[in-house]
Amino acid sequence: MIIITKKDVTQEQLDHIRERVESAGLRTHVSRGEERTVIGCVGDEERLRALPLLSVPGVETVHSVLKPYKLASREFAAEATRVPLGSAEIGGDEIFIIAGPCSVEGADMLRSTADEVRRAGGQALRGGAFKPRTSPYSFRGMGEEGLEILAQVRKDTGLPVVTEVMDTRQVELVASYADVLQVGARNMQNFALLTEVGRLRRPVLLKRGMSATVKDLLLAAEYVMSQGNPNVILCERGIRTFETATRNTFDLAAIPILKRETHLPVIADPSHAGGRRPLVAPLSYAAVAAGADGLIVEVHPDPECATSDGDQSLDFPEFAGLMAGLRPFAEAAGRTMRSGTEAVGP
Ligand code: PEP
Ligand code: MN
């Protein structure tokens, strides 16, 4: 159930509305926008229906949210959510680019990649320290040493870092280094992990599971948000289908659908979707044209020697080319792109 207040609602009236709802046993979430304030109510709606809410001072309208996700639904927020990160925010006018290697492989390669990401206009650095690999015999990441390298490169370049957390037992450790906790496709329905990252305020980059519907993804976001963490960024990264020409099937339609269904920022991962370097740029352009708020892209100084996902990792000139090529698509979608020369840092 959501309550939309009158435009001139006072703080006293707002508090009073919340008290009425909470005394009926429901939880309230207030979202203030420039135009309106929305009070989202979660709990047994039958108990609210018994209250004459329309006669409470300050209330404009009351209506039910029929979707199974509540906090994540567009109606629950007065405006689109912007997740602050570093010197920028995800979900604002500026297209937000997260780029970096699939895995952290060492200090030098991460530092040179970070310099290139910043130079080309990227706003955050990615790099996995704990890697979910399909085969247990593949490189599974540098672990805590990788986290230390990420933190050092953040210090040196000013770029916030995004890295994956795979297990509830790692949340505290990863959160002590990372600016954004990535929950990978294989863990999208790891409800214990979603609950754990929901207890923090650290932004969570939630990737769509390979066989998850848009609704499943939004319910996974709801898990995180229901624990009190509103900073969720959704990521379309392709799903499994019968098609084998690409690593995954990029579900472009999911982007405008998500933008309609939720107030949360939505980004795309063209690297894991396409699985091959030549596909990364066209999928990126399509995602931005379709309304994505940003991208997460794999970039490596020498893709041929990458320990993971080299086939889909762009080298530095390719990444710079992608960034230049994105600009007209961003502008056509009514967005802006940070130019490399504007990039700031310590
Ligand atoms: C990754 O970002 O390197 C990764 C493993 O992604 P996904 O969880 O989408 O497969
Ligand atoms: Mn990868």
Q: What does the model show?
A:
- This protein is an alpha/beta fold and 346 residues long.
- The protein contains eleven helices and 14 strands.
- The strands form three sheets. An eight-stranded parallel barrel has the order 7-8-9-10-11-12-13-14, surrounded by six helices.
- Strand 2 (27-32) and strand 3 (37-42) form a beta hairpin.
- Helix 10 packs parallel to helix 11 (316-332).
- It starts with a strand and ends in a 14-residue tail after the last helix.
- The relative contact order is 0.13.
- Manganese (II) ion binds at residues 102, 272, 298, 308-309.
The gyration radius over C-alpha positions equals 21 Å
Average of per-residue pLDDT values: 96
Q: How many individual helices? A: 11
Helix content: 25-40%
Tell me the distance between the termini.
Answer: 46 Å
Spans of 5+ residues with little confidence (pLDDT < 50)?
none
Bound compounds, please? phosphoenolpyruvate, manganese (II) ion
